[in-house]
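// run 5 | inverse folding | seed 20
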């Protein structure tokens, strides 16, 4: 099996930025239609220069009022990963059990659950984690309207999508997760974050054991409504 960006066998000797950067010339549509959550990763290290290139492209993403208030914590230390793995397993024990109950008879959903379980079991072996954070914390214990919460997190997710697309183009496996951050207080303690910095999501990066897309998605007409919900003139 070869890597789309490098044309090298998966699990081959270490790849440098020079080896994979040419993959960034991949057509945007190809990157978008083949991007998927790749959870099964090799433990092989990822060159720091490749990770930094992904983050450099993440910085091109828009932020609210052009605040550019993101921060990124790159995690390679196994002890730190093990502490996050514990947080991840705690919440997955709850959601995973519920998910298996709801997924009875659904082979597709069961495969996804198996992949998430594999990631949880091997979390500390993920080569690199990138935690996307935002400066300017939300007020603690103060309920905010959904639009305010959406606006706040809207400054990190466009950047993380850029990071994921860059990873895809250079042949890295990646997935966006939030379970390790279910306790903001514990996450701040593990990462050494000040109170003014909010951990938002985690990109798990590594060379894939499997391969990318294409993906299976619903027809666009099934999810698009015109002018008001329920009016679906493009549904067939």
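// decoded
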């Amino acid at each position: 099996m070869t890597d789309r960006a490098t044309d090298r066998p998966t699990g081959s000797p270490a790849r440098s930025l020079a080896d994979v950067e040419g993959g960034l010339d991949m057509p945007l549509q190809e990157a978008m239609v083949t991007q998927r959550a790749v959870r099964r990763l090799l433990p092989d290290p990822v060159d720091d220069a490749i990770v930094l290139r992904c983050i450099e492209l993440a910085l091109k993403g828009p932020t609210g009022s052009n605040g550019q208030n993101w921060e990124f914590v790159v995690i390679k230390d196994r002890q730190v990963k093990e502490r996050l793995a514990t947080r991840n397993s705690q919440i997955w024990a709850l959601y995973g059990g519920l998910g298996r109950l709801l997924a009875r008879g659904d082979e597709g959903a069961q495969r996804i659950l198996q992949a998430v379980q594999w990631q949880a079991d091997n979390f500390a072996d993920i080569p690199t984690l990138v935690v996307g954070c935002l400066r300017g914390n939300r007020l603690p214990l103060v309920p905010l309207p959904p639009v305010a919460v959406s606006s706040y997190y809207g400054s990190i997710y466009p950047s993380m999508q850029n990071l994921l697309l860059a990873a895809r183009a250079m042949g890295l496996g990646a997935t966006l997760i939030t379970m390790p951050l279910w306790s903001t207080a514990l996450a701040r303690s593990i990462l050494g974050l000040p109170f003014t910095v909010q951990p938002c999501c985690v990109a798990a990066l590594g060379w894939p054991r499997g391969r990318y897309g294409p993906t299976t998605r619903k027809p666009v007409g099934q999810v698009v409504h015109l002018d008001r919900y329920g009016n679906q003139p493009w549904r067939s």
